[in-house]
Amino acid sequence: MSDLSGGTTIVVGASRGLGHGIAIAFAQAGAPVVAVSRTAAEFPDFPGGSGSIRSELADGGEAAVPARLIDRYDPRTIILVGGATPQMRPLHEQTWETFSIHWESDVRIAFHWLREALLKPLAPGSKVITVSSGAALGAGGSPLSGGYVGAKATQRFITGYAQFDSDRAGLDITFSTIFPKFAPTTGVGRAAIPVYAAASGLSEEEFLRPQGPLVTPEIAGKALVELAQANAAAVAPAYLLNGTGLHEI
Ligand SMILES: NC(=O)c1ccc[n+]([C@@H]2O[C@H](COP(=O)([O-])OP(=O)(O)OC[C@H]3O[C@@H](n4cnc5c(N)ncnc54)[C@H](OP(=O)(O)O)[C@@H]3O)[C@@H](O)[C@H]2O)c1
User: Fold this and answer.
1) What is the number of structural domains in the chain?
2) Which residues does 177 contact at the CB level (< 8 Å), separation at least 6?
């Protein structure tokens, strides 16, 4: 188990949703957290402990941002969770702009941060965790979400490529991808669940019931703290995240 108080955790996409919960959980676990987002966020105070959250207003998909923030904070953990809200409509009602929104946000963020983690490089023993989507594990994709699933699958591929490059260069950085199931209270879940429930002829409650316990920002935060604290040798390349926590894939 590693002590998170000894190094900064950067959470990219922390103003709302799962990233907000992840930033709070890391600070509660004692980490100095840098919370990156384009809009301002509210966070609680953490009196008495070593944990804290400092906001950085920045577009995590801009090429120059990772180098600037990695240079400034020298992080030991980076969580890439930020992404766009899918434009929920069938393929023929998408434009290229709506279809490609996750390539220009989720994939762009992952690309620039993974690349910079290797170029810098992060200190040996560091961890980088990319948040993809459980939808990217299915063969059929998500037919009402445009380019979402392809983009989230690409995040997994490039996180694996980063591990490959790190291993070849002997950098001792651990890269993992997390595949969350539906989180109905956060932005992506709020957009997708009503549309897929309606397409199945079900109420939202009926649609979600077979999923079992659902993901929340608190569950995501607790799970990612445990992963960040784990011995690197015990960390797998990929995990499903559901309401009961992480499950190695
Ligand atoms: N909710 C679900 O059901 C679900 C299921 C599977 C996977 N996921 C994945 O989990 C992640 C979080 O989803 P969520 O539902 O929590 O989303 P959310 O509530 O919509 O929050 C998205 C966060 O990403 C940030 N963000 C977006 N673009 C950014 C950029 N260019 N630079 C910095 N920050 C950026 C937003 O902040 P600003 O707008 O302030 O920049 C916000 O804090 C996403 O990658 C999503 O695909 C979600």
Assistant:
1) 1
2) 129, 130, 131, 132, 155, 156, 159, 160, 237, 238, 239
The domain that contains 25 carries what CATH number?
3.40.50.720
Distances (CA, A) of 140 to 53, 83, 91, 150, 214: 39, 21, 14, 11, 22
Strand partners, 248: 239
Cβ of 82 closer than 6 Å to ligand 1, yes or no, is: yes
The pTM of this model reads 0.98
Domain extent for 60: 4-248
Under DSSP, the state recorded for 182 is -
Comparing C-alpha atoms, which of 174, 139, 176 is closest to residue 155?
176
Q: 187: CA distance to ligand 1 center in Å? A: 7
Which of 10, 12, 15, 107 best tests ligand 1's pocket when mutated (most atoms within 8 Å of CB)? 15
How far, in whole angstroms, is CA 155 from its chain's centroid?
A: 10
Return the best residue to mutate from 16, 43, 159 for the ligand 1 pocket (most ligand atoms within 8 A of CB): 16
Q: How much is the pLDDT for 49? A: 76
Any ligand 1 atom below 6 A from CB of 180: yes
Q: Round to whole Å and give the CA distance between 227 and 234.
A: 9
pLDDT digits (tens, 9 = 90+) for 15-60: 999 999 999 999 999 999 999 999 999 999 887 777 999 999 999 9
Question: For position 1, what pLDDT does the model report?
Answer: 61
Distance in angstroms (rounded) separating the CA atoms of residues 2 and 10:
16
User: Do strands 238-242 and 245-248 pair parallel, antiparallel, or not at all (unpaired)?
Assistant: antiparallel
